[in-house]
Write a structure and sequence with these properties.
280 residues; Outer membrane lipoprotein wza fold like; wza like fold; five-stranded mixed sheet
């Protein structure tokens, strides 16, 4: 009986130690970004990849000239709306005021072209914003309609999606060139504590199918040297949940890793040992 009591006491101690070990192992270890980056050093990254227009992309193109009449010829009409109204008003809407303004845009068709006022169909697929500006400026000058046009091109519907373990998953707008993966995560509220920094996936729609890029945010080289460093339109970023998050998805998946579970088990073993000792 004495041997059994000692054995149960030893078992209780072992369970307590196991519980503390399990608790310490469950603490996230790799939550710091760019761990291999030294202080005050310069990290080279891949060359900037400007966004190039694809079919179904929408852009606003505004032309300004010295003569107001010429300017009006090359610009689509502006539509205005009242504050609080649905922004998807059509050209036939009569609910208009000067409180807010919507700029009409061009949608790149399946042939990579837009139908531009006066100039007709122009192929802009594969061009950057700067290249579209230069191209349309040359076309206007060649048409002898204006000698000094100023052309401004802005993205309208270009965006990307963020899924998984981030604070605010969803679809976000790309508002400029050289939009990085850090910009994307900042818009989504950063990774949660349950997101795997070493296993972030970016899916990119390529001409020959989807490209898969894996990123390890604890490694500066993994991020800065990846083709996924610069975001492209329609990219999808997925942050994998860590082991704790996956266990939480089950009913009792995280119980065996919790300190309370192991301490309760140790307490039970101790109580049994004391009970046997008293009955001795």
């Amino acid at each position: 009986m004495k041997y059994l009591t000692h054995s149960l006491a030893a078992l209780a101690c072992a369970l307590a130690v196991a519980g503390l070990s399990a608790t310490s192992c469950s603490t996230p270890q790799n939550i710091v970004y760019l761990q291999d980056a030294a202080d005050a050093t310069t990290i080279a990254h891949i060359p900037a990849q400007p966004i190039r227009l694809k079919p179904m992309d929408q852009v606003s193109i505004i032309v300004n000239c010295r003569e107001p009449e010429i300017t009006a010829m090359f610009n689509l009409p502006y539509f205005t709306r009242r504050l609080g109204e649905n922004q998807s008003l059509t050209s036939g809407s009569s609910n208009m005021s000067q409180s807010a303004t919507n700029i009409s845009g061009y949608t790149v068709d399946s042939d990579g072209c837009i139908d531009f006022p006066v100039l007709g169909r122009l192929r802009i697929e594969g061009m950057t914003r700067a290249e579209v500006c230069d191209f349309i400026k040359r076309e206007i000058i060649a048409s002898e309609q204006a000698k000094d046009p100023v052309v401004t091109v802005e993205f309208m519907n270009l965006g990307f999606s963020v899924l998984g373990e981030v604070a605010r998953p969803g679809r976000f707008r790309i508002d400029r060139d050289q939009f990085t993966i850090f910009d994307a995560l900042a818009l989504s509220g950063d990774l949660t504590i349950n997101g795997e920094r070493q296993n972030v996936t970016l899916v990119r729609h390529g001409a020959n199918g989807d490209e898969i890029h894996k990123l390890d945010f604890t490694s500066a080289q993994s991020v800065y040297n990846s083709p996924a460093y610069y975001i492209q339109q329609d990219d999808t970023i997925y942050v994998t949940p860590n082991d704790k998050r996956r266990r939480d998805s089950t009913v009792n998946g995280n119980n065996v890793r919790s300190s309370s579970f192991w301490l309760s088990l140790a307490s039970l073993g101790t109580s049994i040992a004391l009970l046997i000792f008293r009955l001795k």
